Amino acid sequence: MPDPITGPRPTLEAVAARAGVSRATASRVVNGGAGVRAPLVDKVRRAVEELGYVPNHAARTLVTRRNGAVAVIIAEPEFRIFSDPFFAQQVRGISRELTANDSQLVLLWVEGRGDHDRIARYLGGGHVDGALAFSVHNDDELPALIEKSRIPTVFGGRPVEERSLAAPYVDCDNRGGARQAVQHLVSQGRRRIAHIAGPLDLTAALDRVDGYRDVLIDADSTMICQGDFTEMGGARATAELLERHPDLDAVFAANDLTALGALRVLRERGARVPEDVAVVGFDDMASVIEQTDPALTTVHQDIEGMGRLMVKLLMRLLDETGSPAPASVITPTSLVRRASA
C-alpha cells in the first residue's frame, strides 16, 4: 500500500488493472452502482483495499445521484440546542443511524425567520439528499419552504394539521404519556395538581396539556402555567403557581428540565417532595435525572430511538425501488417511578 502522505494517490485505473476489470466496471462498484456480478464486485473491493484507493466524491454522486449527506434542521436558536440535552440525545440517534447508512450529518438551526431564506437556498442547491426537521413551531414557515424545495423530508413531532403535511413524521405519545403522569398523581391521593406547560406553539406541549385535561376534566385553568421547556421557565412557573395556589400538592411538569426548576423552587420555599408536593416530569433524560433530588419520577420516551427512526424513514423515502412512502410513527411512552412522586 502506498504511503498516504508521500506516495502517489491510487487511481481508479490502477484499481481496475489490479482487479482485472474495465475502468467502467471498477467505477460502478466503487461508486455504488448496480449491475456488476458478485465475483467481480469482490475482486474490485479487494483491489480497493490493497491499494488504499479513496473514491472521488463527485464521481460517486454522478453514479448514485446521492450526496451522502442529510440536513438536520432544528427550529430553535443556538442557545437552546446546546443547553437542552433533548436535542443532543436526538441528534446522537440520528448521527448513529446516518453513519450506519454511510451518510453525513449537516446540522442547521434557525435563530429566526431571517434564516429561512438561507436554509431554503441550501436545501434547493442539491447539497444534501434529504432533510430531518424537528422542534418546528406552529407558525413556522419552515415546513412550506422545505416542501417547496422538493427534498425528501421526515419531521420530528406531529404537525398541527397532519393532513397539510405530506411528509411523514415521528413523535412519541405525548398525550398518553401525560395521562399516565396525572393518573399516577391522582392514584396517590393528590387533588390539587398543577401543570407547567411547554411552549404552546409546539404540538408536544399542546398534547401534554390535553393529556392533563383528559384526567382532570374540570381542572381550574389557573392550575396551568406556561413554561418554556427550560429549568428557568420551570422555576418561574412554579413560583407563580405557588402564589396562586399555595395549597397545591402536585406538579406535572412538561419536561424534565422544567421539573428540575420546580424542584429547586419547592425546596427554597420549604416544601417537602413528595410529602407536601409530588413532582412528575416528562422525557426521562439521564443527564437531568441525576441532578434531581429526590430522584425524579417521569415519563420515558425513547429520544435517541426516535432519531434513529427518523433516519430509517428518510432512507425509505430515498429508496428508488418505487415502494410506497412510509407512514408516520407514534412511539409509546411509559411512566418511570422514582422518589419524587
Task: List the main descriptive attributes of the protein structure presented here.
6-stranded parallel β-sheet, 12 strands, disordered N terminus, 341 residues, alpha/beta, 6-stranded mixed β-sheet
Provide the residue-averaged pLDDT. Answer: 88
Alpha plus pi helix count: 14
Question: How would a crystallographer describe the biggest sheet?
Answer: 6 strands, parallel
Relative strand content: 15-25%
Number of strands: 12
Q: Evaluate the radius of gyration.
A: 25 Å
Q: How do the SSEs run, as a string of H and E?
A: HHHHEHHEHEHEEHEHEHEHEHEHEE
- Report strand order across the widest sheet: 2-1-3-4-5-11
What portion of residues is helical?
A: 40-55%
Low-confidence stretches: 1-6
> Structural class, from secondary structure content?
alpha/beta
N-to-C span: 63 Å
What general form does the structure show? elongated
In words, what does this structure look like?
The structure is a single chain. By secondary structure, the chain is of the alpha/beta class. Helix content is 44%, strand content 16%. Strand 6, helix 10 (203-215) and strand 7 form a beta-alpha-beta unit. Helix 1 (12-19) crosses helix 2, helix 2 (23-30) crosses helix 3 and helix 9 (174-187) runs parallel beside helix 10.
Short description:
The chain has 341 residues and is α/β, with parallel strands linked by helices.
